[in-house]
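dumping the sequnces here before i forget
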Amino acid sequence: MDDILDNQTEVSCDVLVIGGGTAGPMAALKAKLANPKSTVILLEKANVKRSGAISMGMDGLNNAVVPGYATPEQYTKEITIANDGIVDQKPVLKYAQTCYSIIEELDSYGIRFQKTANGDFAVKKVHHIGTYVLPMPNGETVKKALYRQLRRARLLISNRFMATRLLVGDGRIAGAIAVNTRSGELLVVRAKAVVLCMGAAGRLGLPTSGYMFGTYENAANSGDGYAMAYHAGAALANLECFQINPLIKDYNGPACAYVAGPFGAYTANNKGQRFIECDYWSGQMMLEFYNELQSGNGPVFLKLDHLHADTVGEIEDILHRVERPSRSAFHAGRHTDYRRQMIEMHISEIGFCSGHSASGVFVDEYARTTIPGLYAAGDMASVPHNYMLGAFTNGSVAGKDAAEFASGYELAAFDRGDVERERERVLAPTRRDDGIPPNQIEYKTRRLVNDYLQPPKVARKYELAQQRFAEVREDMERTMIARNAHELLRALEASSILDCADMAAHASLYRAESRWGLYHLRTDFPEKNDNDWFCHTLLSKRAGRMTSEKRAIAPYVVPIADDEKKLYDKQRVGARAAV
Amino acid sequence: MPLANTSTSVPVIVDNEKCIADKGCTVCVDVCPLDVLRISEQTGKAYMAYDECWYCMPCAADCPTGAVTVNIPYLLK
Ligand SMILES: Cc1cc2nc3c(=O)[nH]c(=O)nc-3n(C[C@H](O)[C@H](O)[C@H](O)COP(=O)(O)OP(=O)(O)OC[C@H]3O[C@@H](n4cnc5c(N)ncnc54)[C@H](O)[C@@H]3O)c2cc1C
Ligand code: SF4
Ligand code: SF4
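..and the predicted 3d for all of it:
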């Protein structure tokens, strides 16, 4: 089973899209439709039918900018404030202006959105200021509907190929190298343009349960996209702005105040009292959540037991069918019932994810990275708080622009030695008879991430983490062993995870202030310092070394008044009155 | 360092009576995002080969005969 075959194939295409979860299918579709004669390949580690965050569908759009409820300018303002001012507004505004047309397109694919009696979209208020959450009554069909479109457009889909490195030549993108996850065979894909849609770095921290695959993010998202962009020399933005989410304790589903909130549920402390005004996920909100967890009022709960049984039934019908349907088995095993008990909550492991926070490969409003011909969209691209509709919308933007880029170029030349070196790196663990298996390399890395990188952040702890990571890296490079193709997949993932751990440490040490609430809470620099740090940080590989630098924030296109800037700092119940 | 075989209880169970892998079905193996299911060479039925499950449930949702049950992994049950 999973025997390793020593083989290598080479193919060429106009546009290569890597990752067939949410953003990827949309990018591939748009690239193909923009230029139907071109060759577009969609490469996926798993199977596009059921891959990515939306493998079992989603219960709603978290950030729909729907006319009549909000304007693109209001949305841009809200996200700027929610992300503590560190926002390139142009991509956010572009998203906000474009996303409604994508909702209409999804609607035409057969995905339904909740409507009022008058036939208008029924958008709900969850954010601090505006109204942006649009439920999807048949949300479980998202992936199927998308897949039908891909089949219709006759896209080339390569399932079970894990991309491992990008190829760069002539100062632009040249393609990518991938490994078959069932045979270990290498695939070299030459491409005129490449779109990275590999999702969040979701296997960075270790869930408190200790189960390595019990992550909030789809556990196939091991941060390969971040590692590949880094090794290719692209800039990555604001990696110190970690993703940390409020989840059900031990279960990796969101407690889902976004679903239950509009019905009257809320996040409560052990006294059953509301302590945050708004359940929309932001670093500032997570800090209050964390404070409450640590306090005498902890732990924190999702409270529904005050709602009518029929209302709870309606909520359960959504939560137990879509997104994380094993939730019902979890509650049954614990004998918990939303009608009778509050549900214990906890905070998730850390990760990188722009979809929820702001840590991603740096992109502009055309989804272009800093390498010509290389694009990124979805959770791994730096557009903050972008969620599912952001992945669809910016995937679409990326696909179109990539098609145009590809039409103006021939395939770039590249150094054949790069393929040889990657081949050696990939296969090294298969050539050993004895050594450390990938699961131990991965477990140790992630345990160290929890011990040292989980906020609150302290420089000395971070430096210790860097030393430990270097030791694990040495073990990985010298002794990691993979006995079959499946273990090789995990070995390559372990390497991405370690790269992400190093980047998380480096970026966090660089920003010598606290920002984004819990996401970058440095106890040794507890204050926000706008004089020195009102800027992005960009991390990249220069002459083989990890470096960080500041990047000025582009002048806002949507101005924020001084009294609005701190609105997300006032999350605690009563804080608004007090300030 | 020599390797040991440490046993774990896996969360996904396949009902061999219902599984039609011996008639050529590989649906659950094909759709699993974590690629942890295989068809057993001994029994000709699907089974969980690697304890690396996201308990996401496409395997159960897409199985044509309802043979798959996804349980919560013991560590977080
Ligand atoms: C549990 C959960 C609940 C959520 N709920 C909501 C919600 O209710 N509303 C909302 O708007 N948003 C929600 N989100 C966020 C939203 O789902 C994501 O922001 C969005 O789907 C991300 O899309 P993506 O394309 O970036 O990543 P994904 O959809 O995760 O796709 C990434 C793909 O890349 C593939 N891949 C990874 N590495 C490689 C590699 N090396 N080679 C090839 N392929 C690779 C993966 O297999 C995967 O298919 C939720 C997310 C999660 C995890
Ligand atoms: S999908 Fe069902 S019937 Fe098919 S192989 Fe899997 S368990 Fe057997
Ligand atoms: S629950 Fe998900 S990860 Fe587990 S075996 Fe089924 S499809 Fe695979």
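The first helix of chain B runs from residue 27 to 31.
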